[in-house]
Structure formats: structure tokens, C-alpha cells
Amino acid sequence: MNGYFQIGHIAKLHGYQGEVSLFLDVTQPDAYHQLKTVFLEMDGIATPFSIKSLKPMNNGFIVIKFEGVNSEEEARRLLRHPVFLADSLLPVLDEHSFYDHEILGFDVVDTARGLIGKATGVIDHPSNPLLQVEMDGVEILIPLNLDLNKIVNRQDKRLTLTTPEGLLDVYLS
């Protein structure tokens, strides 16, 4: 959905009064403990849901009670729906930083080799996040915790970086 970024999904019911457990698939779940409104994708449309109450749990889960959702049956219709926030809530980043979701489909360019492929995702492993790049059917994984001298060109949808010597040879030889 254009103009939104996914923060998680409704994972399960919580009790019988319409509460649900939202799994936050984000790097810092604590940053989302003050939410007032979220958007659920309902039939391809970003549908706003106001939050009546929110209770942080363990392992990236929060229990949410939405306004107007008062029964197990009403809550069950929300299960497995992705949960989004508006892009406008994100702080603007400089040219050396990016949000994982915003670079999907960007051309990835190595300063030495040139175009190496398209960004297809980020594996958000806490100790070693990996940029996923697809080149001619080959998946290339580039550790993001290295000093890659990243330059993000949002207008041209291009991510330029300097990969460590030999890294690309592992994939492209």
C-alpha cells in the first residue's frame, strides 16, 4: 500500500472482549507503545482503527483493544491482517540512512562493480541485518552493519554502496 509502512500483523485473539495481539515486526517494538491509530489492510484498502487501549507484552507483542471491536467474533475478522502506519509519521532521513521498506525495488549499485541488482528486502537480524539483492535470479546478501558508505538517492530509486572486497565474488563467480 503506497503511503504506508507495515509494522506487523494481528496474530491472535486475546480474551473474549474483542482484544487482539499485534505482533510488531520492527527493530524497536518499544517505539510503538504509544499508538493512537493504526491502519489495517481490509480488501486492499487502508482502513483506520482507533486504539482504545494498548498493553505491551513480551517478544514484540502488544495487546490492543480497538474502538468499536467488542466481541470475539468482531476481533476474529481482523486476524492475520497486516497493520500499517502512515509514511508521514516517519522522520525524514538523510542520504546515508534508509527505512527498510522504502528501498524495496531500488537499484543497488556498488562503487566498484556498478549495478548489482534490485533490493528485495532486509533481513532484520539484530546483530547483523542483511540487505537482500536479486541479480539474475541470484540472491546476494550484504551485511548492513559494515561501513558501506551508503548513499540513498530516493528520487532515482538507487542505493549506492561500497561492498567489502571479495563479497560479491562469492555470489557472482
Structural class: mainly beta
- For the record, what CATH class of the largest domain applies? Mainly Beta
Poorly predicted regions: none
> What's the CATH H-level superfamily name of the largest domain?
RimM
Outline: elongated
| Strands ordered across the widest β-sheet | 1-2-5-4-3-6
Tally of separate helices: 2
Strand content: 35-45%
Number of strands: 12
The CATH topology annotation of the largest domain reads as Elongation Factor Tu (Ef-tu), domain 3
Helix % is under 10%
Let me know the largest β-sheet.
6 strands, antiparallel, barrel
What is the string of helix and strand elements? EEEEEHEEEEEEEH
Q: What is the CATH architecture assignment of the largest domain?
A: Beta Barrel
Q: Please state the CA-atom Rg, rounded to the nearest Å.
A: 19 Å
The N- to C-terminal Cα distance equals: 37 Å
Mean pLDDT: 91
Number of domains: 2
